[in-house]
Design goal:
- The complex is a heterodimer of chains A (373) and B (84).
- Chain A is an alpha/beta fold and 373 residues long.
- Chain A contains twelve helices and 13 strands.
- In chain A, the strands form three sheets. In chain A, strands 2-8-7-6-5-3-4 form a seven-stranded mixed β-sheet, sandwiched between helices.
- In chain A, α2 (37-57) runs parallel beside α8 (244-260), α3 (70-81) runs parallel beside α4 (96-104) and α9 (262-280) runs parallel beside α12 (355-369).
- Helices cover 27% and strands 27% of the residues of chain B.
- A five-stranded antiparallel β-sheet of chain B has the order 2-3-1-4-5.
- In chain B, 44% of the residues are buried.
- The chains are: A alpha/beta (373), B alpha+beta (84).
- Chains A and B meet through α2 of A and α1 and β2 of B.
Chain lengths: 373, 84
């Protein structure tokens, strides 16, 4: 299979991820629920992952809270900072993981920056919208639909200057772009474990600069006589039994990224996308969404004139090529790009993708474009 | 010499402490805190020999690891807060 749906989840995992998960299932019990060897093995596995995450994202290990996924992490951050009916500033490229919890809170949402691949416009729009009294700024680092890299470092500077907390959605950047909790000064950074960090599904991280409001209350293996959740990290955000096999796999996935180098992975994915663009750009029936390399990761969205994106993706799937079509759970991003009605086809390679696969996928898309299916 | 217990409210804090002591070449054992030392129910401790307890205290402070209290057990098994 040609798997170009890595922005949804990296499907091909490094072998050590699977080995680590199997080992955890054989050797690990539950963290903080006992002093026996199997519980301590679990504690060691989880702490090792926490420590590596702290190293990768420049924050103390106890400020790393394990979640089920990035959506869980984002919800926790949003529920902590945004009051019901409060005011927030978000980018025009946010995922439903941001938009829906804000809508559920009845938040007044200011959308800043709608121009694709235009960091200056994005920055100017945030600069105009971030005012004292705003509960939080929530910004994706990279658009999941278009791979647009938003100027989050500069947005973070504005937030710091104006005393407005920042929640960064690093769902599409963790594992391919540099992220420093310390440098950004963000209140929270949310990310999945199963995308660019090459961990298994069911894992995510919330990096916390402050205590989060727990979405779940329950056992933590600490302060057990207290009816309320602990007022310290990471326990406050981690009620219930941990996903130890998942976290062990995530640790191996992050180690893979560290060993390979996030910049090398990004460069590889961008190279594959550039090759796809070269092969497809001359076809008049295809509309490619491309930006400068400095503001686009290895994600390529496109539209085929006169062809339903779902039908095209189904055709590709039938031929063994996995892509994502439709709105990608990001209607705001499609609205910004003018593709809300038609959706797009998204190709997102990974560290395991090859140029040959890009050529095969391009040929299939060209077949679609000329209506030979 | 008495064994000393450095208490921690979370296992993560105790694990940070354990790493800090190991970096300084000090021996310790991470364990669930004896009931008498965990007034809030379920805590963790690093057990350190009496001889190494002052160095352990210093190491935790140098590495910025927050701990609760330091206890030592008397001959009759009662825990008492230790002044180091």
């Amino acid at each position: 299979m040609i798997y170009f749906d890595n922005a949804a989840t990296t499907f091909q995992k490094p072998k050590p991820v699977i080995s680590a998960m199997l080992s955890a299932m054989r050797n690990c019990a539950s963290v903080g629920r006992g002093g026996h060897a199997a519980a301590m093995n679990a504690a060691e596995a989880v702490f090792s992952c926490r420590t590596l995450a702290g190293e990768m994202f420049s924050c103390p290990p106890e400020n790393v809270v394990f979640t089920m996924n990035a959506t869980h992490a984002l919800n926790m951050a949003i529920m902590t900072l945004v009051k019901p009916g409060g005011t927030v500033v978000i980018s025009g490229f946010e995922h439903n993981a941001v938009w829906r919890p804000l809508s559920a809170l009845g938040a007044k949402i200011h959308v800043a920056g709608r121009k694709l691949f235009d960091p200056e416009d994005t920055l100017a729009a945030f600069d105009a919208s971030i005012r004292p009294g705003v509960d939080a700024v929530i910004c994706t680092h990279v658009s999941n639909v278009f791979g647009y890299i938003l100027p989050v470092e500069k947005i973070a500077e504005i937030c710091c200057r104006r005393g407005v907390p920042l929640i960064l959605d690093a769902s599409q950047s963790a594992g391919c772009l540099s992220i420093s909790m310390e440098k950004l000064g963000a209140a929270f950074i949310a990310m999945p474990g199963h995308k660019g960090l090459y961990g298994p599904q069911g894992t995510g991280l919330l990096l916390c600069a402050q205590l989060p409001k727990p979405l779940l209350c329950g056992g933590t293996g600490s302060n057990s006589r207290d009816a309320s959740m602990p007022d310290f990290l990471p326990d406050r955000g981690e009620a219930g039994t941990q996903n130890v096999p998942g976290i062990s796999g995530l640790h191996a996935g992050m180690q893979f990224v560290k060993d390979m180098g996030a910049d090398r992975i990004l460069s590889h994915e961008q190279k594959i996308c550039r090759h796809l663009v070269r092969l497809l750009e001359k076809n008049k029936f295809l509309r490619l969404f491309t930006g400068d390399e400095s503001c686009q990761t290895g994600v390529l969205s496109l539209c085929l004139e006169g062809v339903d994106c779902e039908a095209a993706a189904a055709f590709l799937a039938k031929k063994g090529c996995a892509v994502r079509s439709g709105l990608h759970c990001a209607p705001l991003a499609h609205e910004s790009a003018g593709t809300l009605d038609c959706g797009t086809i998204r190709l997102s390679p990974s560290a395991f993708s090859t140029m040959r696969q890009a050529e095969m996928a391009a040929n299939l898309l060209l077949t679609c474009a000329v209506g030979e299916k | 010499m008495f064994e000393h217990y450095f208490t921690f409210r979370s296992i993560t804090g105790a694990q940070r402490g354990e790493r800090a002591l190991k970096k300084e070449g000090l021996r310790c054992v991470l364990l669930r805190a004896p009931k008498a030392l965990s007034m809030k129910g379920c805590g963790y401790a690093l057990k350190v020999s009496g001889a190494e307890a002052p160095a352990a205290k210093l190491a935790l402070e140098i590495w910025g690891v927050e701990y609760g209290k330091i206890y030592r057990f008397s001959d009759d098994g009662r825990a008492e807060e230790a002044a180091i």
